[in-house]
Amino acid sequence: MPAPFSLPPNLGDYLAGSTVYIFWDTFNTSNTSVTQTGLAVTDIEIYKNASMTQRASDSGYTLIDTDGIDIDEATGCHGVSIDLSDNSDAGFYARGNDYMVMVNAVTIDSQTVRFCAATFSIENRAGRNGVGDYQVTLTIRTTGGTPVSGVSVWVNSSNLRSGSVAGTKVTDTNGQVVFNLEYTTYYIFCNLSGYTFASASFTSAEGSVSFTKDIATAVSAGSSAYYTDSFLTRAIADVRESTDEPTNKAKYTDARIIEHLEKAYIIVLNEINRNSRTP
Fold this sequence. Notes:
single chain, 2 helices, CarboxyPept-like_regulatory
């Protein structure tokens, strides 16, 4: 029988600063669970992408259940944890990278064994922040250069407001949102009550992943700019926003919205007339 081989499990994509837990089993030639010996944090080696240079520090590695061997007194069950926030080897753990963990070496059934225990990545897969490998920071400001918080921001690879490639984010107190994107051109779309936003786009590339856009203009009810849209088109836009823009809900067609607005229009006029009467 040829010697067996195994593929290391992929543990998934982790947020920066997370803790990775790795577990494995050991057996003898009769497939009976056996205790391994010789495991120490110095046996844990981590490689980044295709580099053959090991992480330079063992800091941040922990043997589970004191010694990592026979966890909770279960023969043949072992484990370690890896703290991704440990920066002893500066910059080794970073977003947009893949990692392989090797155990080198332990003794199992009187044999010296080395094995690839697991692979994982750090924010290097499509997920909640976007579809790419590169962290892109957008800062949304007014035309006067003041950051605007609370802005719903989404980006699309085509100039279509109704689509999003990375979900919707809300700007923080610095007017910033972060997406994980590919290196290409994206169009920016924004929404915040009381503001209008000029058209904007950006092209992310290596060394160019932070963009500031002075595109917000404050608008208040009563100003002429507030009424540039007709009654119906303004109401349609409001409904679109209230149904989790940029996704347009199919049941809210323009015709459906117009139908209900037309029915309500006379009520609005009557209310205006009633309020204008002098008691």
